[in-house]
Specification:
The complex is a heterodimer of chains A (about 400) and B (about 220).
Chain A: H1 4-17, H2 19-57, E1 61-66, H3 77-80, H4 86-96, E2 100-115, E3 118-127, H5 131-134, E4 139-142, H6 147-151, E5 156-159, H7 161-168, E6 177-180, E7 183-191, E8 201-205, H8 206-213, E9 220-225, H9 231-242, E10 251-255, H10 256-299, H11 301-309, H12 314-346, H13 357-383, H14 387-392
Parallel strand pairs in A: 3-8, 5-7
Antiparallel strand pairs in A: 1-9, 1-10, 2-3, 2-6, 2-9, 4-7, 5-8, 6-7
Helix pairs in contact in A: 1-12, 2-10, 2-12, 2-13, 4-9, 10-12, 10-13, 12-13
Chain B: E1 5-16, E2 19-31, E3 36-40, H1 47-54, E4 62-67, E5 70-71, H2 77-87, E6 88-91, H3 103-112, H4 118-131, H5 147-159, E7 165-169, H6 177-192, E8 196-201, H7 204-207, E9 212-217, E10 220-221
Parallel strand pairs in B: 3-8, 3-9, 6-7, 7-8
Antiparallel strand pairs in B: 1-2, 1-4, 4-5, 9-10
Amino acid sequence: MIYIPETIKSAFRSLLLNKVRTALTMLGVIIGVFSVVSLVSVVQGFQNYITDQFNALGSNLILVTPSFGGANQDPSRAFMGNKLSTKNVDTIQLFVGDKIEAITPSIRVVKQVKYKTKTYTATLVGGNYASYKVYDLETAYGDYYKKADDTKSAKVVFISWGVKKDLFGDKNPVGEKVKIENITFDVVGVAKPKGGTFDERVFIPATTAIELLDLETVSSIAVKVKEEYDLDEVMHEIKVALLRDMKADDFSVTTQKDILASIDQILSVLSVALAAVAGISLLVGGIGIMNIMLVSVTERTQEIGLRKALGATSKNIGMQFLTESIIISLTGGILGLLFGYLGTIAISSFLRATIPWWAVIIALGFSVIVGVVFGTYPALSASKKDPIEALRFE
Amino acid sequence: MIPVLKAQNVWKIYDMGADRIEALRDVNIEIFKGEFVAIVGKSGSGKSTLMHILGLLDTPTQGKVILNGVDTKGMTEKQLAQVRNNEIGFVFQSFNLLQRTTVLDNVILPLKYSRVPSSEWERKAREVIELVGLTDRIRNKSNELSGGQKQRVAIARAMVNDPSIILADEPTGNLDSKTGDEIIKNFLKLNDRGKTIVLVTHDDELAEIAQRKIVLRDGTVVK
């Protein structure tokens, strides 16, 4: 009879006799678990990032975009054949106006915003005076542009917190002038910080954007539905309204929930695929363990013979070697997890990466499985050694 | 009186294809409590095979080994391991200590496979280490000891479970004569305390110290 704690203690003692070898063997599992954990946490980080972005918009948002025309069509069609215009905004307003809180055309381009000698590369968003409601913007300084600014295509700009900090520092920029595409804009207000890419945006009236960029179409139309109405119902009504001016193939109406769900799905598949690839390194780590354990069994043949002579059963011997390989792989798994966690902390300033609980369980579970699977053959070969031959072994 | 150890009509035959090697041929021996017996024979006489069979590390092809009146034939691997652990103490020519492990841990090793509670291990080990005079070396690692000291650790290890019999296979074979004498003194001391000892050796002179000699030649007991 031999107690489990004694087997574990004895396994640790044997492993510590060859510290370097044990550490190198462990390295395979450490790298395997580290890569599984860090890849999963990065994907999780992206997922968090996207979710945050969508949450910032609120859940009752409907987006009208040029149609992607289905999977078997040229994706560029969505841009080339874009037929969305401000006219469609009016149509929606006319037919569904009573059910919506706000509606805005949306034009997005990346442009440089200049203030004196400073330049900021921002996402320029062209929207109407009501777009602040759609985007859930709150004002820190000044005010959002007014309906009149929309009508006369005024050269006014409402900037986000990140742009304000970069170009103006701590000072209140309302009333200052900035240049976009060499045209001077008056800063009318600053948004409160909102997080993510929201803080890298500048907002100008949609009419101004159309004029400035010489556009005929808009990138999308965003509709914020009143809380009391059902999102799917309103979505259907918007579709019906738009079919007066366009063909069903020309546009698509989605809720941001749908978009979020499809991105989530893509990221989940990506996450599993990356974990599988990283899992291969865990397999390689396991082969390393088996290799070293087989060497160890041969080296310790005499010890096996001695233990048997002194009263160890084959089961005792097998358990001893199996425990050693499980300790190597589990310790490797714990260290890999720890390094993965440290890695997550290291990138936390760029990405809100998190290690999901299931990744911890899978990483530790797999390292134990690796230890058992790759430790069984060496343990069996140790347990089967004939004590007399083992004692004679030099 | 029941012998501590008895080999009855023991044969050990190795079938190696066309060759048939009879390592032991109808061996009958009895060893009684408190005896100091030497099994002597030249190389190839079958003495090591006999020791392995007496020590229950190997099984006879025919015949049986009876330990303390109990027939060991048909015992399971687990039962044999338990009997080896409780009843037999081994001392080997090449000491066979665990490398880079302390004297104390080496001596404790058989206790780990016994039913003795772990709280008792150190006390029992210290007792036998004192008996072989190595108390001051108790925390030393096996690789820090001289040959004689190593063999004394092996004797302590063989004694720790208080076995019925100690089987020593050429225990002085790897030692110089002076150190060898000291080891033999240790065995004599144990024998004086009533321990049954079987010494396997090719050295006739060494065998003289035993009370009784069993001489093996070509697998047969000749004397």
